[in-house]
Amino acid sequence: MDSKDLIKKVKEDKVKFLSLQFTDVLGAVKSVDMPIRHLEGVLEDGAWFDGSSVEGFARIQESDMRLKVDASTYAVLPWSGDGAKRARVFCDIFTPSGHPFPGDPRGALKRILKKLDEKGWKYNIGPEPEFFLFKGENGHGVHPAPHDTGGYFDFSSFDEAVVVRTALMDALDAMGLDVEVGHHEVALGQHEIDFRFADALKAADNVLTLKYTVKAIAAQHGLTASFMPKPVYGINGSGMHCHQSLFDTKSGNNLFFDAKDEARLSPLAYSFIAGQLEHARALAGVVAPTVNSYKRLVPGYEAPVYIGWAQQNRSALIRIPRYTEGRDKSVRAELRFPDPSCNPYIAFTAMLAAALDGIDKKMQAPKPLNNINLYHLNKEERTKLGVTELPGS
Questions:
Q1: 3-state secondary structure of 33
Q2: Residue 376 annotated to the active site
Q3: How far is it, in rounded angstroms, from Cα 393 to Cα 390?
Q4: pLDDT band with cut points at 50, 70 and 90 for residue 152
Q5: Class of domain 114-389
Q6: Does the pLDDT at position 153 exceed 50?
Q7: Is 106 a catalytic residue?
Q8: Residues 191/183, Cβ–Cβ less than 8 Å
Q9: Does the pLDDT value for residue 162 go beyond 90?
Q10: What mean pLDDT do residues 67-81 have?
Q11: Domain spanning 3-101: which superfamily?
């Protein structure tokens, strides 16, 4: 969709206000609302804002910045109602001189994807953000009490959230996400809605769309959605496992697949994995960026603690899902320590940078930790296997 298409589309949809959205460095969605009558001017000149008031952007003496609309991200907000119908677009950030702002998280991801495009490759990601739904009592503030008593994959009278989850999936579908599954997760009040994998930029946009859609729809049902990695002590936390692969842009082939390899992984895939393992401790600060993130990354709750890779093994940092004959394009590497508190643009940028370093240097992946529950190993056993740990805070 280009600018002309966008102007036509907002008229067809009878949209009254357009939200121009971007994120700060921490991943919080920022938005400025604009009456549609000003759309043509904004598409031509951009929308100016104070960059010094946004976390991590600019100093006060150099604060003028400009938003440029990415028309391809247009979506109507299904909860806005007919009276004052709203839509949103994501924006890229530019300096007054017309250059892309180096500190724009979305711009950072675009830059590294451009380098990948020059190789003829495409970075696909399928994120799996988990979240909790909480309720308040008698009009008081929210407390960490899950609002249902369901468990993993439950569908019964105990899964009170099925109505809310259905509304969430409907809203996400309406906003253009290709929702694949929605289900109750392991902990009480915990849920997951997965959408089809996409190129990294689209996937990052989708993560943000999911997060604020979940919060909006939950609020309509008198609930509060939380994407904190570990909001409740003693139960599973919320991760954002990321299924990754590289595809050839011309042939459409999965560059991770090698039929002759026991794990069906190509040499390029092994180097990709090796790069992310090599830089795992540094990556932690980006993909698990909060103090609360490290309340999740502890043994016993299906969250990774130790640095290694394996086939099917969910105690490893990187898991290779089981290969199904004939599904070559499904071969992928699941990175398991990201959580939904991260900025997806920055997280995906760092994940790809680590992987490309492994590919460029032809790093060799260590031996797989198949059929080993890493949580049950003592320090001596881990040392013998060459297994190191993620940071603890």
A1: strand
A2: no
A3: 9
A4: very low
A5: alpha beta
A6: no
A7: no
A8: yes
A9: no
A10: 92
A11: Glutamine synthetase, N-terminal domain (3.10.20.70)
